[in-house]
Amino acid sequence: MTNHPLIEFRDVTKRFGERTILHKVNLKIYDGDVTTIIGKSGVGKSVLLKHIIGLLKPDEGSVLFQGEPIDKMTKVEWNEYVTRISYMFQNNALFDSMTVFENVAMPLRQTTRLSEKEIKEKVMARVEQTELMPVVNKYPSELSGGMQKRVALSRALVTDPKIVLFDEPTTGQDLIRRNAILGMIAECHKSFGFTAILISHDLPDVFFISNRIIALDKGEVVFEGTPEELENFEHPFLDEFIDSLEGFQEHLTGLYSRRNFRVRYQKQIGQKHADETFVLLTFSVEDIGLVGTTLGQETSQKLIRALGIYLNKHFGSVGGFSTRQNTEQFVTVLPFSDLNEAQKILDDFATDLVERGLSNIQTSAQIPEGECFDFSISAGLAEGKQNEEIGSVLERAGAQRKTIARFQCDKRR
Q: Which domains does the chain show, CATH number per domain?
């Protein structure tokens, strides 16, 4: 990160009639970061976002892009600026009459002069990267809410934007889907390298994927800094939020519910301890081979991608974040966990994988009925402490890897 902000607000004030929505707002957003703007409903978060894309202009102050006020840009500069920005709407804004392919292709058809061949190539590349190939010809109404979010993200990324704006991406979602959506955003940010700006009224949703947090309260910026700095920040805005969390915690029962709550809200409710630990799990697909099929490497890769989706779903439900390390390996991090808890979660995953997971994975990978694989899945885990090098924890986890499931055609053990 450089010392020069990509986007900067200087004393921005916006009024609607006699009501002041933003009051002398000053903030900085840096290139390549994930910056989250938090605050309750109605405090001006969406209004702030609309100033970035030029849908609104400040009554006072200025918005700058790379040091230049956007309202002073020439027409050519403005056109270049807006083509660098993409927007993922809160309600997805997908067109029901269009297939997934057509929805994703729409920005290219509206804002570029690419040929249909070039559009198809770009769309299919994004669809594959966001793991939408099995549904590319389906309509939004045929998809789950999570898959619709993935389509909206694919569409937002198809123009190769420099900046992606996310308007309440987790609103209305349950805990499992919230984690899945944030994991998807984090993975795409890592892969594509865009600058992400999220707004949320639910503070903990975005804690684990953000470099910087900006807190907006009553139209003013009351905090700007890292998630760690927010822990020591004292303001009535946070006090009200913490009170609501402590009341909610009393209603939770069971390992998964309590753990999900602890992962999502520990930094807001409790004091961070020096001995706080996390667990890293590494998964490997081994001995993979096709039996009675001619699809070869392409099909095996579909199966491995489907396994990655299954990992994200299972461990995302307890606050874990999974990523693909290489062709046949995945890594999952369980924040605020220890070996005993992580082992129980891993055992549940292994049982679920054998009993239900394989059929789900084969369906997701679109493997025709009658074709099957011989393969095994191994896993290792290791506990790490805050500020410990992730590489050393990963090495220890790899050294502990053991087979947790083995699949054979018409025979599983």
A: 7-235 (3.40.50.300), 277-412 (3.30.70.270)
